[in-house]
Specification:
The protein contains 15 helices and 13 strands. The protein is α/β, with parallel strands linked by helices and 429 residues long. It folds into 2 domains: 199 residues, Rossmann fold; 212 residues, NAD(P)-binding Rossmann-like Domain (Rossmann fold), CATH 3.40.50. β9, α12 and β10 form a beta-alpha-beta unit. The model has no long low-confidence stretch (mean pLDDT 94).
Length: 429
């Protein structure tokens, strides 16, 4: 398989061309023939014109790539090695939503041939590949896994907004249904991954490794958020505490803040769901999720309390929320917890303006019901910096004072202005 891909006698397909799938597809397409498959024709048309709909890649990333962008099953049938990189979200009850994953599996099942390979990269609970996806592939194709076709799992490790840790530079965890599959999957990924590959003991181990990467971060950030709540009651700045504690060589540097997005704020729910299915209630993970999911409301309430403490009528107050994406320096607004801050402020009657140099106003309106303000006021009672975009780090004290009333409040979740607090009331986590 590896040699035939290199010689372009066979093709590789990537299903799901979002922030994970598109970079992988393009990287392979510099070496072999690739079919980029997606069901969104609007996104496909942008990619055909050399535009990344996620805004992560520049136009030059498409140069020199042997790739066909399509939603056609007949074109998908030409592939022999399939990589699935579709989203794995949660529903309104925080339960795994496997519809995109099973949808992609159904597409592959209709075109799967003897000798083909299927590798999943989407983040799932341990056992999902072999318990949910492979049986569906067998049912639709009429083929037998292990003998007629092979499968594996290789968790994605792409970090949106990170230009340093790209697909070729990150050690790739790979797994296969048997030794032959493991070898082949490893060889195929070595085509593009310069950092090398790591052979996981099994498909379930690879799935579990991925999900605990984000669960570990979630729990650690939850601890920082809980500490920030405690320290706030004590009148201590959490960032001052972290700087002091960080002088110890083995202190792990996590920071408080809003935890959203489609990884850290979602993946732990896949693990707790599977644990519950096995008869165990995950105490620590669920507690961490509760703390992090509550932070938007906590921040808004603290802001309202400080507005009231300044002797102002909350219902006549104006606030500027700076940042609407789920993290710094990206355009992605999925599962942004900034929406919780905005909605909670509005529930108290605060007039809220939102600004963000990266987010799309129409997308925010569609997803959360608010838009980006076209021009800023110079009379905000509070400015809340929720996301640490580079553009915000370049602002100075004078810019803040220019847009605040004389006794205005700055709420700085990322500690950007911690040492520039002259002329206004300052509060951070």
């Amino acid at each position: 398989m590896h040699r035939e891909l290199i010689e372009k006698k066979k093709k590789l397909a990537v299903l799901g061309l979002g922030y994970v799938g598109l970079p992988i597809a393009l990287e392979f397409a510099r070496k072999i023939s690739v079919i980029g498959f997606d069901i969104n024709e609007g996104r496909l048309e942008k990619m055909r014109n050399g535009i990344d709909p996620s805004g992560e890649l520049d136009n030059g990333a498409f140069n020199g790539c042997d790739i066909t962008f399509t939603s056609s099953l007949e074109e998908l049938r030409e592939a022999n090695f399939y990589i699935v990189t579709v989203p794995t979200p949660i529903d309104e009850h925080n339960l795994p939503d496997l519809k995109p994953l099973l949808g992609a599996t159904k597409f592959i099942g209709q075109v799967l041939k003897k000798g083909d390979y299927v590798v999943y990269e989407s983040t799932v609970y341990p056992g999902c590949t072999e318990e949910d996806c492979v049986p569906l592939l067998e049912e639709l194709s009429g083929l037998k896994a292990g003998s007629d076709f092979k499968y594996g799992y290789s968790p994605e490790r792409i970090n949106p907004g990170d230009k340093e840790h790209t697909i070729t530079k990150i050690l790739k965890v790979v797994s296969g249904c048997d030794e032959e599959a493991l070898t082949t999957v490893s060889e195929v990924y070595r085509i593009i991954v310069q950092a090398g590959v790591y052979h996981a003991a099994s498909v379930k181990v690879a799935e579990a490794a991925k999900i605990i990467e984000n669960t570990q971060r979630d729990v650690n950030i939850a601890l920082m958020n809980e500490l920030s709540i405690i320290f706030n009651k004590m009148g201590i700045n959490t960032y001052d505490v972290l700087e002091a504690a960080g002088t110890k060589w083995n202190f792990i540097r996590f920071q408080p803040g809003l935890v959203g997005g489609h990884c850290i704020g979602v993946d732990p729910y896949y693990l707790t769901y599977k644990a519950q299915e096995m008869g165990y209630h995950a105490q620590v993970i669920n507690s961490g999720r509760f703390v992090n999911d509550s932070m938007g409301f906590y921040i808004a309430k603290q802001t309202v309390k400080k507005i009231i403490a300044a002797g102002k009528d909350v219902s006549k107050s104006k606030a500027l929320v700076m940042g609407a994406t789920f993290k710094e320096n990206v355009e992605d607004i999925r599962n942004s917890k900034v929406a919780d801050v905005v909605k909670e402020l509005q529930s108290y009657g605060v007039q809220v303006d939102v600004t963000d140099p990266r987010a799309d106003s129409d997308d925010l309106k569609h997803e959360y019901g608010f838009e980006l303000v076209k021009s800023l006021s110079n009379s905000y009672d509070a400015i809340i910096i929720t996301v640490g975009h580079q553009e915000y780090k370049e602002l100075d004290n004078a810019w803040l004072k220019r847009h605040l009333v004389s006794d205005g409040l700055v709420v700085d979740l990322k500690g950007i202005f911690k040492k520039k607090t002259d002329g206004f009331t300052y509060w951070s986590l």
